[in-house]
Every structure is written in structure tokens, then in C-alpha cells.
Amino acid sequence: MPDTALYLVPLLGLLGLIFSLYLAYSTLKNDPGPPEIADISRAIRIGATAFMRREYRVMGLTALVFAVFLALVLNVYVTFAFLVGVVCSALSSFIGMSIAIRANGRVTFAARDGLSKALHVAFSGGAVMGMAVVSLGALGIAGTYLCFELLPFTPGPLTVITGYSMGASFVAIFVRVGGGIFTKAADIGADLVGKVEVGIPEDDPRNAAVIADQVGDNVGDVAGLGSDLNQSYTDTIISSLIIGAAAQGVGGVYLGMKGIVFPFLTVANGLVASALAIMTVMLLTKLEKIKPEATFRIGLLVSSVLALLGILILSYFYLGYLGAFYATAAGLIVGILIGLNTEYYTYKKPIHSIVLASETGAATNIIMGLAVGLESTVLSMILLGVGMIVAHHFAGLYGIALSGLGMLSTLGMNMAMDAYGPIADNAGGIAQMSQQHPRIRHITDRLDAVGNTTAAIGKSFASSATAAAAISLLTAYSEAVNIVRLDIRDPRVMAGLFIGGVLPAFFASMVIKSVGRTAQLMVIEVRRQFREIVGLLEGEAQPDYTHCVDIATRGALGQLVLPCLLAISVPFVTILTLGREALAGLLAGCIVCGIFLALFMANVGGAWDNAKKRIEA
To answer: Global pTM?
Structure first.
């Protein structure tokens, strides 16, 4: 029989889901606004929903094919866990995005009552995503584990639950890549023609790509980022369970079943900490005197302190070993420091250097931006290494997995902040398109500026969380196949390292090419409409928004499959042809190069974006 403490996890997951539904109700009860606001919000909602349905249809069919493959190669139990992982991950993304696309217009209308009211509505909409991700993750993983623990004549839960991790990863790669291609192609098409060639303001209703741009914010930065972080969350939990089961003891303390239960309780503790932090922020947003930036910092502080306090209590009273607390705390602190490092490079002094470099032309802007982006990765990479060493010192391989769990223990609060950004961005776009009073536009711009910073922090958090999950998975894999150490003199290991090192770059290249091709089609279409629709530039005619949304949708879905197949197939081919040591090398190479690229791209993009906004201000 499982430890009775395990039953607490799915129960808290269910309560978290109820809280998420309450937040959704709290958001939707706000006035959607007059027709000029509601109609634009409806157009964004229709476009986003249509894209997600088509994407989920492609993903669902591919998932069924992959499920049959798993059933033939492994067994039906792993296949069942895989499908549960797919459903939970897809559902959390869809719930979060469904509320985000309904909150945007409500935020615009709420801005008539002031900054605090608009901030309250925007954050409550984002918090739905935060709680949905952590609640469905806890409910799905714990529920699957207990199901196979209690049912007779089934394999052990730890041999099956890896299928759940595969399901979450499967959804993440589809939703993240598909949404990313859509949002960047639409963004480039809207800005390149509208702002650069024609000279109209950003989010101007005369721009045919402007609705597609707003749709992209939701499918890429809400659903995409949510599925990405859900995958990291899931992988870290499951790798902690596997390593906890393999570890006989840490620091002279026998673990036994507690090595498995402790990660589950850490997840439950993080869920409660995030929920209380979200409640705190919801209360603070009603106060006029506190700035939005300060409100979010207080929320992060509350979630971090509560999470640390809970982990300390669990380590001392349940596990009986404080080393687990130190290892978990190391991951949480590293995550906070990486977020602060990202905020500095995307919002503080380095931005000024890019602005100054822009005075002498585009070339010096690019050079300085690249320099800032490269420099921004240094401290983050060092922090990840130091955190791993500290965690290993206190609790061995189990500590490394726990440090990743610590980094993700405040995921609910972090994800709420991340999802807030696109909602605020959409609200600003709707205010511009519906020609609201400059005072309202000023408030939505203020919210959007805060959202840019939370988005940059969210992307760095996603990169760091992915690093933690990947390191935990590599550790779990080495335990599962009994690899004590990687011998770099083994040519198979070196081959795996080289393949893993180049894989993120090749994957990024494929995705960027897809964005470029789709953006070209978007630019051609926007130019055509300005050229052929009489009176469009003068504001006397309406553009065809639907066609641009359709171009971005077809481009994203049509060029989604190859990058996904690359990421899924290469590990299988490597282990079948070169063996398990080569796969370990591939994972190690992919972790180092992939995390560097992820941090660099997220930070340099955020730095350029904020430098542009500072120049335009």
C-alpha cells in the first residue's frame, strides 16, 4: 500500500483546479466592454481558437500513431500513461489560453477605472494558467502513480509513469513550436509592413496582420510557454521519483518509500505556496499606491519564502534529513538569481548601451545586442553549475533532482506572471485598434511594459527549468541503465556529445527558417491588401484580417512536423545505432548547448525589444 501522505497530492491538485476555475470566473465576470472593444476581442478569440483546434487535431492524430508504436515496442500500460500525459498537458494549455483570449478586452475596458483595476483583471486571467498547469500536473502524475500502485497485475508505477513524461513532452514540442512559428511570423509581418514601410503606428487597425499578431501572443506566449513549463515540471517530478526510488539513503539516513513520497510532497507544498502568493498579489492589485513591478516582486517573494519554509518542515519532520532542504533550496535560489540576472540584461543598464549603439546605425545595434545577449548567459550558466554542485554535495544524485524540483516549486506564481504579459499586450493592442482615450492607452502601455519584463523573466525561467529537468532526466537515465560515469575516451560517447551539441542549433535553424518562410507570405499579403484595397490606408475600408490569420496558421502547422520529428527521432536512432553510452553523451551535449542557446536567444530578444521601446518612447 502507498504512503497515506500520497493521497494529499491529487487532493490538493483537485483543489488547485477548483481555485483555477474560481479565478476564471473572477476574470470573466468583468464587463467585456462596448462593441468596439468586444468585437476586436472576439476576432482574436476566434483566430486563436481556430488555430489551437487545427493544431490539436494534427497533434492528436500524431499522438495516436505514437501511442500504437509505444504499445508495440513497450506495453499498453506505458501507452496509457502517455495518453494521460498528453491530455493533461493539452488541457492545461487550452484552459489557460481560453481565459487569456477572453481577458484581454476586459482589461482594456477596466483601464477606464484606473491602473489597479486593469492590473487586477490582467493578473487574475494569467493566474488561471499558472494554477491550471501545476494543478493538472500534480493531479495527473500523482493519479497515474497511485493508479498503477493500487491496481493488481500491473507493472510497478515507476516503470509506467515515464510514459506520462513522454506525453507532456510530446505536447510541449507541438504547442511550443507551432505557437512560436505563428506568433513570430505574424509579428514580423505586422511590424515590417505597417511600421517600417507604411509608417502607421503599432496595432493600427488598418494593418491586415494586426489580429494575427494578437492571436500569436496567445498561442505562442500563453499556450506555448505553458506547455513548455508543464513539460519541465513533469520531467523534473518524475526523474525525482525514479532517483528517489533508486537511492538507498542520503547523509546516512535511510529513505525507503520516503524517497518517492518527498518529491510529491514538495510538489504539493509548491502548489499551496503559489496559490497563497497569487491571492496576495490579487489583494495587492487593489491598492492604488503599489506599483505593478513591486506587486509582482512581493508575490515572488511570498511564494519563495512559503515554499522554502514548507520544504524545511518536510525535510526535518518527514524525511529526517536537512540536506534535502539545502539541495532543494539551492535550486529555488538559483532560479531566483537567474531571473534577476535576466531582468538586469533586458531592462536595466545594458539596454542603454544598445540604445546608444543604435545612434550610429543598424550594424552597431546588432553588434551591441549580440554582445549583451552573449554576456547575459555567463552568470546564468555559472549559477546552474554551482547549484548542481551544492545540491550534489548535500544529497548526491537525489539532491540534483531535488534542486530542479526546488526551481519549479513556485511555478504556479511564475506562470501567472508569464501569462499576464500577453494579456496586457493584447489589451494595449485592443485599446489602439478601438481608438480609446489616450489615458486608457497610457495605462495599457504601463501594463505592457511590466509584461515585457515578466515575459523575459519567464523565458529565462523556462530555460532554467528545462535545464533542471534535463539534468534530472540525464541523472535518472544514468541510474536506470547503470552508467556510473561517462568515459570521454569512448568514441561513442564523444559522437553522442557532438550530435547532442549540434542538435539544438539544427533544431533552431529549422524553426527560424519556418518563421522566415511564413513571415514572407505574411508580408506579401499585407502589402497586397494595402495596394489593392481602395481606401485602406486612409481608414475608409477594412482589411481582411482572416486571411492573415489563415496564412500564419497554415505556415505554422505545415512546417511544424519536421522539427518535431527531428527532436523525437534522433534519440531513438542514437541508442539503436550507437548504444546507451552514446545517448547519455547526446543528452549531456544537448543540455549544455541547448541551455546556452535558449538563454542567449531569450535575453537578446528581450534586450532588443526593450531597447526599441525605449527609443520609441
So the answer is: 0.90
